[in-house]
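== Polypeptide entry ==
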Amino acid sequence: MTRIRVPFNFIGLILIFSLLFVINAFSASIDDLEIIPMVTLEQIGGHSANVAVDPTNNRPHVIWVKEGDMKHVYRKSDGSWSSAEIIDDDTRIVFGGDEHSYPLRNVGMTFDETGKMHIVYCTQNGMIWYKTWYNGSWSGSIQVVNTTPSKINLDIAIFNNKIYVIYEEGANDLLYYVVRTGSTWGAPVPLGSGEFPYLYASNSGYLYVLARMKGDPRSAIFKYMSTSDSDWTNVTGIDGAVGHLGTNPNMTIVNGNIYVSWCDKTLAEYDGTFYETAMYCSSAPEPGNGTWNHYVGGDTIMFANTSGPYMRVTSFSDGTLMYYNSRRANEQIRVLEGGVWSDSLAAPWDDGVSELAQAGMTVWVAHSSFNTSGWYNEKYGPITVTGVKNNGQEILDPTTITSAVKVNTTNLKLTFNSVSGASSYNVYRGTSPDFVPDRQNGTNRVASAIIDQDGGTAGVQWTDTGNVAGNAAVNYYYAVTALNGSESEPSEIYGEFDFNLITTPTTDFNEIALPLNVANISDASDLASAILNCTSVAYWEPTIQGYYQYIPGLSSTNFVVYAGYPYYVNVVDNSIFTITGTLTDPTYSLVTTPTTDFNEIMLPLDRSDITLASQLQADITSCTSVAYWDASIQGYYQYIPGLSSTDFTTTIGYPYYVNVTSDVSWPSGSTVNARSALAKGTGNAASALTVPHMVYGSIPRSENQIALVKAWLNDDASAFVTTTSPGSQLKDGVFALQIASLPNGWAIGKNLNIACLDSKGNTVFESNIVLTDQAADKVLNLTNTVTELPSSYTLTQNYPNPFNPETLIRYALPQDDYVKLNVYNTMGQQIRTLVDGQKSAGSYQVVWNGKNDSGLNVPSGMYFYVMESSNFKKQMKAILIR
């Protein structure tokens, strides 16, 4: 390999651009670089290796494809690599599953600031899919677009709170991009012809596309958009190839400057036998719409016996620019020293393609080897990962918070791992789970340059003496950095969360969730032990629409508990339950059943955008209702879409019931609910249900004339709910009755009676409905029961007359009165009392069955029935014929 001087007519131009693009921190030399020993992840048949770094702990993750499966590893805190796991792709065959179709980059991956990994990949049937990983758990796959998979290359980036995916489709090498806003993927948008596309999101508020034009002549494709743009701005002439660009370009952003690596397609003769290719680096200030310097580094780098190398450019956290090739022969690494390229350092990978990710002063390189057998064949591989470490300035590794313990009513003691070389630590605190430590200005720093407060205990201890625990209205979150001249990247976010638990005059159940990964709580008995004065723990099982309950001391009732899920806890005294741990990111499999369709969820910590039940209902596909348990009334409040008076506030980290009309996964993916031990449709549904079920309707008269609405089951008239019961209301002429408040529960198919009462307790309207398995039943018809009052006292002739064996006697009262109605024989003896008591004004009827007060049949003959009240007396004849 040789270095040649640039022709004389370029020297002046180079000097000008050297002044324009001064980089403040290019301090390392090639001698400062250290190659971390290469690790082989897959020996034969692997391809499409990619790497990304988790910003919460600076650990690299590598994903690659082999025989239709995606595999995943990550670097552990002790420097070793995890065992390779096959990513559950729902039996889909990832493109590249046969020996003749190995794309260069079939997996795109990135991390967001919370430590969630986002990936896209293509399957053999031509579909592009999206999937996430967080804290050891994978979401299900969501389809992004259906495309043609031939020679697919794709990438993913997070920008302006949206997810962007770019891909190269089909044999014609057409570029498209797709945007995900919220939980919705848009339609593919064409970007024209091109190959090998990349996406780059910068801290300056720009998103970039870099690719290679298809065919000849060709150059680099470069586009950008800002956070306020709705479309791309195209920039031309970023390379000096003048239509002779070689293999796919690559870029990085350092101190506000863009650096693009590229090589010339033209081969120059070298020593009469071999050929060499010129490689370049272009630069311009962000966003790249100014003048480009095509010759960063002064000299043109010539690689001998090489055609079409894959050039890569990146930087370390101190600003040192690193430049290397990964394809063909003579893989070499260089850095920019004093404005010129350094001598080379041999790279450990062989012929293939590399993807890279920067983590502080280390660059991680995932490499897919082509071997010597060709581009597309079964000998693809091995897959390796290598680290290039810059020792020019020591950058400390981030620490890890291992626990936070409540040491009194308000204070927390944090414990975190010590970091080699650290002299002290900074602690940051926020009140939201997505807070970002302000390392520049220290606005949310609560401890500076602290040292271990408890030298006799493993790890580093520090106590936050602020009022940060035991207050359910405010939760706190922490991050720690290591110090030794410079400050490390922050640790993973660690949270503190409080629940206010209360007792009531009735039952004492409170519903909580576990929004954090809590150490030492793995089952119901652990949870009961962790809560002061807790006597029972239960959870709602949606597949049977019923509860499972743990009773302390009865081991057969114990069950496993999972972070991110809701639980009921019964307490015999008021208390504050404090939990601490790392953040959860659950996905719920919501199911329908042969009975009701309610499922319990926790509003995830990253969904602070949802603040109302109506927003939660709208966010969940096929959701028809949302409810929550109010411990103070030991009952439910329920939101019904379209009934605004039932809407209520929601809070992240708290549990809610949601009713769905079809099976759905939420927030995204299709991961099976880890807690469900029973398959859909198994088990016996409870005969008496206490799940939320609203019955509601409009009253024809104004609210002022109706004082109370009451409901009861046909076969249980003694048990009823009213509009004063928990979770029920009478407002603006609309009543809503929470049937879960029925003392003995309810059941599908039961007949429910409804009565609307005035202030005197008189029934003004009535109706009845059959309860269904829906989230709510609406009463459509209310019958008016009020009739005209009689104008006078009346006693009518019995009917039939003569009679056998019974007859009907009618009477009426114009006012409330005390009434007697007796039957006498012809001798004047009273033989039967039919009515004896106070009656309200109205019309009545009574049946005489021809028996006396002793229950014996009286003989045939004439009888007299006499009605008496305060102002009325009348006698009528009745004839009984046996």
User: Anything to note?
Assistant: The longest strand covers residues 257-270. The longest helix spans residues 11-20. Helices lie at 11-20, 524-530, 613-619.
